[in-house]
Design brief:
Strand content: 25-35%
CATH topology of the largest domain: 2,3-Dihydroxybiphenyl 1,2-Dioxygenase, domain 1
Number of domains: 2
Shape: globular
Largest sheet: 4 strands, mixed
Strand order of the largest sheet: 1-4-3-2
Helix content: 25-40%
Number of helices: 3
Order of helices and strands: EHEEEEHEEEH
CATH superfamily of the largest domain: 2,3-Dihydroxybiphenyl 1,2-Dioxygenase, domain 1
Structural class: alpha/beta
Radius of gyration: 16 Å
CATH architecture of the largest domain: Roll
Amino acid sequence: MIAGLNHLTLAVSDLDRAIAFYRDLLGGQLRARGPGMAYLELGSLWLCLEASDAASPATGGTHYAFSVPQAAFDALAGRLRASAPVWKENRSEGASLYVADPDGHRLELHVGDLETRLAHYRAHPGKGVTVLP
């Protein structure tokens, strides 16, 4: 049985630039660094950055969503809008900002959780989503 997400590893073309993005813009804490890799802590997430000549972001709707407290959202979103390209406009419940990191990995900052999303669909049955018990 899966207990949760253990860690997320992103292949990056420039390790120093990626560390600066996740540390300085997103507030991650650099916890370890070695040849071609770094570990950062972002809330409860263990993020591994791995230097690669083949850093290739996912396409389509694939993205990585980070939980952000409502009180911190506007300041963080403002910093990111000034420094990172927006790849999608928010159409979901709750505040969200969709930006790309320096290698094009698609990220979402989101206020809310699974329960708030399910409550939204319960309150809006016309959207065609069936919430299971």
